[in-house]
Amino acid sequence: MNDNVIVAVLSLIGTLGGTLGGILATSRLSNYRIEQLEKKVEKHNSLIERTFRLEETNSVLEEKIRVANHRIDDLEDIVN
C-alpha cells in the first residue's frame, strides 16, 4: 500500500474516534445537566404546592376568625 493511503486511513480512524468520544462526552454532560434541572424543577414545584396549601389553610383560618368575631359581636349584643 501507498504510504499516503495508510496515513489517510489512520487519520480517518483517529478523527472518527475523537469525534465519537466528543459526542459521548457531550451527551453525558447534557444528561447530567438535564437531571440537575429536573431536580430544581421538582423542588420548585414542591414549594409551589406547599405555598398553595398554606394559602388555602390561611384563608380557612381567616374565615373561622371572621365567624368567631361575628359570634362574639352577637353575644355582646345579647348581653348589652
Question: Top keywords for this entry?
Answer:
single chain, 80 residues, mainly alpha, 1 helix, 96% helix, 0% strand
Structural features, described:
The structure is a single chain. This protein is mostly helical and about 80 residues long. About 95% of the residues lie in helices and about 0% in strands. It contains 1 helix and no strands.
Annotate the secondary structure layout.
Elements: H1 3-79
Gyration radius from CA atoms, angstroms: 34 Å
Instruction: Pick out the low-confidence regions.
Output: none
Give the helix/strand class: mainly alpha
**Main beta sheet: strand number and arrangement?**
none
Number of strands: 0
Distance between the termini: 117 Å
Count of runs of 4 or more consecutive helical residues: 1
Query: Helix and strand succession?
Result: H
- Inertia-based shape: rod-shaped
Which bin fits the share of residues in helices?
over 70%
How much of the sequence lies in strands comes to under 5%
Short recap of the structure:
The protein has one helix at 3-79. It is mainly alpha-helical. The longest helix is centred in the middle third of the chain and has 77 residues, at 3-79.
